[in-house]
Amino acid sequence: MVVTSAMSSEDEAPYFIAPEQVTVLVQYGYARVREALPDRPILPPTSSTDEVEVVTPSEGEEERARLIAVGRKAKALKRSKMGDGCTAKELRVSKNDLVGIEVSPEEILEVVMELRQRKASDEEEKFIRFLKIETDDNLYRWLDDCEIPVPSTREFRARELVYHDLWRKGYYLTSGEQFGSAWLVYEGLPGDVHAKFLCEFVLDDESLSPLNLISLVRVATQVKLVFFFAHLFFLFFFQR
């Protein structure tokens, strides 16, 4: 992650770059990496939690919550009459079971809050939240090149070699995950030109299955790109 305040005074979101991009930038002296000191204070994201939220459900929320509360109470009454040994089918609530059952405003409000919390939890899973970034140099230490915490796997090493080789040849690379490959490869700045290649790499003791190869070539054909994969240190091109 690169904090934009390191390059400008504007308050903008940080850039997120891949490990292989980090190693290339460091290798050529374009970047340095630092880590937070162990005694760095943990600062949570700023938010106001002192105010008590006043829950005013909408008509739709209230009606849905009322139906849920009535259904739960009907099922609880049915269970109390039939005992603990009843099956789920026997506990199934029909419209007739709901007749005459009333619920209090407090019970409705409780269900409203439950539904809102469930919705907020579902939405929370779509985001990755990071702690607040402090720019005080005293809170960090600079890492030596050998200390940079990148993956120490063969797969990453192969990924790094291919990325470095293409970058050194003047290509621009972005993630190709949406197309099922390692990278999209550009001959110019992404955004100014369209991607020219789809690139995938294969380790020297592995193989690319025919089905995966056909799938990647088909995707490349559909989006009008050239597909190639790197096996060992040789590039094989498949023209559409």
UniProtKB/TrEMBL annotation:
What EC number(s) would the UniProt record show?
Answer: 4.6.1.16
Catalytic reaction list: pretRNA = a 3'-half-tRNA molecule with a 5'-OH end + a 5'-half-tRNA molecule with a 2',3'-cyclic phosphate end + an intron with a 2',3'-cyclic phosphate and a 5'-hydroxyl terminus
Residues annotated as coiled-coil are none
Similarity field: Belongs to the tRNA-intron endonuclease family.
Keyword Hydrolase on entry: yes
Q: Name one GO molecular function term.
A: nucleic acid binding
Q: For this entry, list what GO says about its biological process.
A: tRNA-type intron splice site recognition and cleavage
Q: Which UniProt keywords apply?
A: Endonuclease, Hydrolase, Lyase, Membrane, Nuclease, Transmembrane, Transmembrane helix, tRNA processing
User: Which leading EC class covers this enzyme?
Assistant: lyase
Name assigned to this protein = tRNA-intron lyase
PANTHER family from the UniProt entry: TRNA-SPLICING ENDONUCLEASE SUBUNIT SEN34, TRNA-SPLICING ENDONUCLEASE SUBUNIT SEN34-RELATED
Please report the organism this UniProt entry assigns to the protein. Answer: Ancylostoma caninum (Dog hookworm)
Q: Which GO terms describe its cellular component?
A: nucleus
Q: Transmembrane among the record's keywords?
A: yes
The tRNA intron endonuclease catalytic domain extends over 156-231
Concerning InterPro entries, the annotation shows: tRNA_endonuc-like_dom_sf, tRNA_intron_Endo_cat-like_sf, tRNA_intron_Endonuc_cat-like
- The membrane-spanning stretches of this chain are 219-238
